Amino acid sequence: MLRIALCIITAAAAGAAQNPFEGKSFYVNPSYQKELNSSIATATGAVKATLEGMLEVPSAFWVDVMAKINGTTPDTVEGILKDAGSRSPAQLVTLIVYDLPNRDCHAKASNGEICCTPNADGTCNYNANGDCSAGLNKYKTQYINPLAALVKEHCTKVPMVLIIEPDSLPNLATNQGDPHCGNSATKAAYEQGIPYAIETLSAACPQAALYLDAAHGGWLGWTNNIQLFAQEVTRLNVLDKLRGFSTNVANYQPIGIACPQLKWCLNGKHQSDPCCADPCHLEGQYNPAQNEANYVMELAASFPGKYFITDTGRNGVPNMRSNCANWCNIRGAGVGRRPTTATNSSFVDAYYWLKTPGESDGCTQTLPSGGKCSRYDSFCGSTDSIGSRPGEPDAPVAGGWFDYQIKQLAANSNPNLF
Fold first, then answer.
1. For 323-348, what is the mean pLDDT?
2. Could you give the CA distance from residue 312 to residue 385 in angstroms, rounded to a whole number?
3. Choosing from 83, 99, 104, 167, which is the catalytic residue?
């Protein structure tokens, strides 16, 4: 059961003086508390108690549409920064920068609002080639620049962590065979948009900590994949602006235990070692990153001197999927470790709830309203996804509040992780 009164993070890792999470009070968003309270009102027993405990757990705020930048309420960046800055001391705010043109090219559920070539209905034509000049201009002038202006305004008032464009570079590195990712427009959007975002936000507030997203071990853990990713990052020439990388954002990979060295568990070796636990059966595919602790160790070898933050919002149950390629509204998942710097690693800055627990990954074919989901992704109909079995409710669009899911996440929370 979750019991948290105050979210003050304490020292744990070497080099803690430079850790942006160290010693900070974390901002808990009233808009998230409002969502939780809507589910608490109809919850009972242990689930209700856990949800009540979650009211004081901080999580990141996703800036996934331009409309979330300016405003006075805590569902906007401007409102959040003003509110966090009014606290004594000012509280650390973690933002997810997530509105790249042709966003999430290998999925449908989380496709964005800015397109290289828009269709008549406002969705993106991912098959169209080009230089994405119009989409990039919109991203720069209507998304990044206004966001950077707020970051600059509050730079000396509010400590900030910025997570840059989840899934974007991993898609560019490994999904070139998908024409939605491999076409010239998407490549231009990612290869020009990401460095612009990093350089502009870093210039706006040099003391803000920027982490570029690096997916998770079940995606990039293979030696070839991580090499392709490292090449993409190097080409962008932004490493000097980054504190490091985020992992497991919006995914379910377990943290596990770090092994003594890379590839410790491969070829059937050391299988009795707890660090070799492999719920996704990745070792048999010659992937040494069967947990996020080992994946971060692999990333650290590729990017010496960089630090990491791992999403623990929904990875409290390690083995609930029949197929670990499934990622949408996974049945049987539980909330994971609450935000902390007690990571037992010299290069992991924090575990943090980056994906907001309770917010949907994507919609089922039929929406809860009974209408048709225009952004249905087949992964949201997987055998592991809530809504694919009789008696389960339909799932709302990506980012929509999913009452059934948050109650299941609370029910399956592992008390040992809190």
1. 95
2. 19
3. 167
